């Protein structure tokens, strides 16, 4: 049963990816860039949901981990001449290793203490990007990161290729996350979220499960950072602040729907598109963003995913109502 | 000759009392209602701006501050009604997002009214106190005194008033308190009012020392969360002690190591403290929130 | 069905409208309209608006015998690199080929790689002072660089012969941080001991730890590099903690802003080392600056911003270059900009030092603004005649 379920999810995800890619490549450069950014943030949101939605631990250090991936990619490609395709997995591993260290420290605490401890780590990370100017370029930023290499046979320009890569990374992250949450570790994570003490009493390896979730999310956050750096050709510490990036991730996941994996994609799409749409409001755009964010949280407190599920369920019961008599005749 | 170490210690206590003053209101609202009120930074900001506007119109500073505190109390209750009450039944993190949204809205309102330019409220008291060992401004002394007064005031309300008893009961066990017939409405209103008032007082006093601008509340509220956790969630002495501790650590790192590392130093100490004592200085044995 | 007919109608409308817009040249206005930096960005954007309205009212531009007008498309950067990049992409996708901006040192370098490799964008930077964001090919800047600010600092030290200095730099300001080593080296060469290099960040409120140390060493000069709100606070706290030496600022700091944060008495005698800004030109009796200020007040009901003159100049530079090129092609306009002399743009307000052939821009696309040292006397800055004539 889980296997056919996973198969169905995979087929649906791949189909959606193909549709999204086909549609996106028809857009102009600006909208294509918005899609690219949206896909990168969706990647971040999905990997963050594996931690937040499946273990219940709120990490505010992920903005810094995003930066670790980005700077790792920048340093390896620009300073050491690595090709992007070698730097991408390396950046994921570096972020994963940093994530493991953070996790080992932070999992001594829980609840708000965990959130604030990781907040502190996130702030330290951001400060380190500024202070370690020799490696990161400091406040002036990291200049001259090469774009992801594009094979000659691809009939796309660099912008189209960037968008395709971002969507592909999102697909890969989503499928990997689906596999993870269906694994024994994923089940253990859910047990941690629901009742830590009970899970421990039942002999579930709590430490191992939540460590795995943290490292998993850190690795994919690192991938997203690497791609972000290569696409932007330039990164600065401003992109990896606790407020700008750390809290933004929480917003993406909560607005989308925690613990669903697909909800955060909706959340990222919405919260990336919204500020662009609000450009028309000019001086009032931030105000409008705040008001709309509040409205979304009030009317969909469990996220867009719950709204969508409720909508589907209503459609289905409507359909089921008509089909019911036929079903009743069966013994 | 002024002793450098004593002077740095005084600097640290002065800075720390500003952190603690902001943290008091935050810790109260979080401790009682479990609301991570990021908009507390905006209560602080509006306290400063309203005081500024009235002082500029020719009003006496202390009167302006009192009126500003009143206005921010009303606003605090309004924010609770519009932003927090509607998501009460939702997962706790929704509360955090609605708090973030509320702070964006309040910041932008201030931006539209006053613009983004930094300014300072004309201080009601100027000058410095020079002792043989250290120098401190009168305004800094006022901030330190206000911290003690505010902490004592909140303690009195919580421990000597009937309402305070109700607030403490809710903080300890909400369901049991409701079963005992405590009016959640009153407790909630009172907690928000006191919390907002503390934020506004901090804003008015610190706005006479520091520049004020619409996003001035963002960093203090982050620091206040750090203080909250350092001191132990929901503990008033913890908030005071945690704030002073953070201030002294920051000043000592900046004074004796490097001003570039003062933030890193402060947060590294936070991490170290939480690793050694995961429930903070004054926290009870940890309860999953 | 409905959405499609809607799109169809929009297309038809666009096709109808295109001929009407054919003689319009769209200028992309790329500044922070919202967010914490909009206090600087909005007055720049508005000055562009005023310059464009003035030019259009006077008959627009004449390009190869045909008359054209300017139209502005404003996009908000929020002073954030990512938002800035999407703003630029939006402009480029709506076929805007001339861009003025951005303001912030964070956004400039993020836009640079995109514009540098494009042959369909011409950019004039009127805001950021960070180094390395012009190329002299299609990216020009009519704002000073930090190293030009530093020239004034060095001039002051040369004139006064100060023996020691502590620098306090806003370490979130890429421009100031970038030139700090070079400036320190130049001052050392003049014989000034560097007593300390300290950092703070925008929004910091307490500098007592650093200043206690500064006061105990008591260097001749405390040099503050950043923004005026922190500058005022540092000056105040330094005096309170017993610092008795000379305070020198290196920052854009109109008196109106300064006085919102510190009393005039506490500012008395402070030096400031940067080229003149809007309020300085008005104080100096520059008629074009006064006219801009009046137009700005009449329109927006508040005084112009300190960088407004640069944005105003940028529009006139663009106009002069397009007319000189006699073409709307980017390559021709770029070449005209590289060749443009100061004399060819009589509307310029700021005091640009011409290059050897009278050129406005050097081969890197950078102008030289006349360096200046001013001293605070009474209620505002005045030219420090004892330092630079």
TrEMBL record, chain A:
| Annotated membrane topology | Multi-pass membrane protein
Keywords per UniProt: Cell membrane, Membrane, Transmembrane, Transmembrane helix
Principal localization reads membrane
- Tell me where in or outside the cell this protein is found: Cell membrane
Superkingdom of the organism of origin: Bacteria
The keyword Zinc appears for this protein: no
Q: Where is the chain membrane-spanning?
A: 7-25, 31-52, 59-78, 84-107, 114-143, 163-181, 211-235, 247-274, 286-305
What InterPro entries is this protein classified in? ABC_transp_permease, LivM-like
Reply yes or no: does the keyword Zinc apply: no
Q: What is this protein's record name? A: Amino acid/amide ABC transporter membrane protein 2 (HAAT family)
Q: Which organism is it from?
A: Cereibacter johrii
From TrEMBL, chain B:
Membrane protein topology class: Multi-pass membrane protein
Q: Pfam families, per this entry?
A: BPD_transp_2 (PF02653)
**Spans traversing the lipid bilayer:** 12-35, 65-84, 96-115, 135-158, 189-213, 225-249, 261-282
The UniProt entry lists the main location of this chain as membrane
- What UniProt keywords apply to this chain's record, in alphabetical order? Amino-acid transport, Cell membrane, Membrane, Transmembrane, Transmembrane helix, Transport
The compartments listed are:
Cell membrane
Xref: PANTHER family: AMINO ACID ABC TRANSPORTER PERMEASE PROTEIN, BRANCHED-CHAIN AMINO ACID TRANSPORT SYSTEM PERMEASE PROTEIN LIVH
Q: Which family does it belong to?
A: Belongs to the binding-protein-dependent transport system permease family. LivHM subfamily.
Q: What is this protein called?
A: Amino acid/amide ABC transporter membrane protein 1 (HAAT family)
Q: Which species is the source of this protein?
A: Cereibacter johrii
UniProtKB/TrEMBL annotation, chain C:
For this UniProt record, the keywords arranged alphabetically read as follows: Amino-acid transport, Signal, Transport
InterPro entries with a match to the protein in the record: BCAA_transport (IPR051010), Leu-bd (IPR028081), Peripla_BP_I (IPR028082)
Please report the stretch or stretches of sequence annotated as the Leucine-binding protein domain.
Answer: 25-347
Signal sequence residues:
1-22
Keyword Ribosomal protein in annotation: no
Among the Pfam families in the record, one is Peripla_BP_6
* Family according to the record: Belongs to the leucine-binding protein family.
**Name of the protein:** Amino acid/amide ABC transporter substrate-binding protein (HAAT family)
- What is the organism field in this record? Cereibacter johrii
């Amino acid at each position: 049963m889980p296997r056919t379920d996973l198969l169905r999810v995979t087929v649906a995800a791949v189909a959606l990816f193909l549709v999204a890619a086909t549609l996106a490549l028809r857009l102009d450069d600006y909208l294509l860039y918005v899609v690219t950014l949206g896909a990168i943030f969706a990647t971040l949101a999905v990997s963050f949901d594996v931690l937040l939605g499946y273990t219940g631990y709120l990490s505010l250090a992920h903005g810094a981990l995003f930066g670790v991936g980005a700077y790792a990619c920048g340093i390896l490609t620009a300073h050491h001449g690595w090709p992007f395709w070698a730097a991408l997995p390396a950046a994921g591993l570096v972020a994963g290793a940093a994530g493991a260290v953070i996790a080992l420290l932070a999992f001594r605490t829980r609840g708000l203490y965990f959130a604030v401890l990781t907040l502190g780590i996130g702030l330290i990370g951001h400060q380190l990007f500024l202070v370690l100017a020799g490696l990161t370029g400091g406040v002036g930023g990291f200049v001259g990161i090469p774009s992801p290499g594009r094979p000659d046979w691809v009939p796309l320009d660099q912008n189209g290729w960037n968008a395709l890569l971002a969507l592909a990374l999102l697909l890969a992250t989503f499928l990997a996350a689906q596999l993870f949450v269906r694994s024994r570790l994923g089940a253990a994570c859910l047990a941690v979220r629901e009742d830590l003490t009970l899970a421990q009493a039942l002999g579930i390896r709590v430490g191992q499960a939540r460590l795995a979730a943290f490292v998993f999310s850190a690795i994919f956050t690192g991938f997203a950072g690497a791609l972000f750096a290569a696409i932007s050709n330039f990164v600065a510490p401003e992109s990896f602040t606790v407020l700008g990036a750390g809290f933004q991730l929480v917003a993406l996941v909560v607005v989308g729907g925690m613990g669903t994996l697909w909800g955060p994609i909706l959340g990222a799409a919405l919260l990336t598109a919204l500020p662009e749409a609000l450009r028309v409001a000019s001086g009032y755009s931030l105000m409008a963003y705040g008001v709309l964010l509040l409205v979304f949280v009030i009317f969909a407190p469990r996220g867009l995913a719950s709204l969508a599920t409720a909508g589907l369920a209503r459609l289905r019961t409507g359909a089921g109502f008509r089909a019911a008599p036929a079903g009743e005749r069966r013994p | 000759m002024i002793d450098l170490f004593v002077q740095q210690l005084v600097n640290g206590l002065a800075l720390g009392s500003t952190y603690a003053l902001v943290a008091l209101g935050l810790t109260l609202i979080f401790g009682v209602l479990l609301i991570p009120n990021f908009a507390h930074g905006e209560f602080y900001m509006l306290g400063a701006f309203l005081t500024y506007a009235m002082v500029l119109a020719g009003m006496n500073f202390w009167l302006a501050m009192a009126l500003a505190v009143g206005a921010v109390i009303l606003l605090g209750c309004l924010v609770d009604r519009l932003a927090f009450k509607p998501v009460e039944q939702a997962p706790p993190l929704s509360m955090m997002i609605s708090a973030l949204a509320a702070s964006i809205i309040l910041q932008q309102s201030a931006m539209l009214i006053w613009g983004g330019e930094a300014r300072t409220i004309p201080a009601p008291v100027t000058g410095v106190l020079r002792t043989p060992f250290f120098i401190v401004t009168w305004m800094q002394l006022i901030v330190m005194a206000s911290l003690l007064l505010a902490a004592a005031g909140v303690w009195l309300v919580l421990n000597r008033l009937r309402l305070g008893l109700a607030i403490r009961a809710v903080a300890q066990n909400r369901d049991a308190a409701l079963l005992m017939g405590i009016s959640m409405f009153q407790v909630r209103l009172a907690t928000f009012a006191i919390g907002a008032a503390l934020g506004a007082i901090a804003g008015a006093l610190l706005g006479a020392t520091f520049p004020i601008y619409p996003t001035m509340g963002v960093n203090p509220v982050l620091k206040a969360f750090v203080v909250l956790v350092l001191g132990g969630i929901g503990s008033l002495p913890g908030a005071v002690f945690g704030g002073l501790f953070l201030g002294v650590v920051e000043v000592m790192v900046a004074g004796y190591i490097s001003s570039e590392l003062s933030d890193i130093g402060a947060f590294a100490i936070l991490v170290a403290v939480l690793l050694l004592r995961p429930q903070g200085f004054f926290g009870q044995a940890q309860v999953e929130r | 069905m409905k959405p499609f007919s809607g799109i169809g109608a929009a297309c038809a409308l666009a096709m109808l409208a295109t001929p009407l817009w054919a003689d319009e040249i769209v200028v992309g206005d790329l500044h922070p309209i919202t967010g914490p930096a909009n206090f600087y960005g909005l007055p720049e954007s508005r000055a562009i608006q005023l310059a464009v309205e003035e030019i259009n009212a006077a008959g627009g531009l004449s390009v190869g015998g045909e008359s054209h007008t300017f139209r502005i498309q404003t996009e908000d950067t929020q002073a954030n690199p990512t938002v800035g990049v999407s703003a630029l992409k939006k402009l480029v996708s709506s076929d805007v080929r001339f861009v003025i901006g951005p303001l912030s040192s964070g956004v400039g370098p993020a836009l640079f790689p995109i514009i540098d490799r494009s042959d369909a964008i011409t950019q004039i930077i009127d805001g950021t002072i960070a180094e390395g964001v012009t190329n002299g090919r299609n990216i020009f800047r009519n704002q000073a660089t930090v190293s030009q600010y530093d020239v004034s600092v060095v001039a002051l030290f040369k004139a006064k012969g100060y023996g020691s200095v502590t620098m306090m730099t806003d370490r979130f300001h890429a421009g100031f941080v970038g030139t700090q080593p070079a400036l320190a080296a130049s001052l050392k060469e003049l014989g000034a001991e560097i007593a300390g290099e300290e950092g703070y960040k925008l929004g910091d409120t307490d500098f007592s730890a650093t200043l206690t140390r500064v006061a105990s060493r008591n260097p001749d000069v405390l040099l503050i590099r950043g923004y005026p709100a922190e500058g005022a606070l540092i000056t105040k706290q330094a005096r309170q903690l017993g610092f008795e030496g000379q305070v020198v600022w290196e920052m854009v700091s109109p008196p109106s802003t300064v006085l919102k944060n510190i009393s005039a008495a506490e500012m008395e005698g402070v030096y400031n080392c940067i080229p003149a800004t809007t309020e300085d030109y008005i104080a100096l009796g520059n008629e074009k600056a006064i006219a801009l200020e009046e137009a700005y007040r009449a329109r927006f009901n508040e005084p112009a911003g300190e960088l407004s003159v640069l944005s105003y100049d940028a529009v006139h530079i663009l106009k002069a270059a397009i007319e000189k090129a006699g073409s709307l092609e980017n390559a021709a306009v770029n070449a005209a900009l590289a060749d443009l002399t100061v004399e060819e743009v009589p509307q310029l307000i700021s005091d640009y030092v011409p290059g050897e052939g009278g050129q406005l821009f050097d081969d890197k696309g950078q102008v030289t603004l006349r360096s200046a040292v001013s001293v605070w006397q009474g209620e505002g800055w005045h030219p420090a005649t004892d330092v630079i004539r």
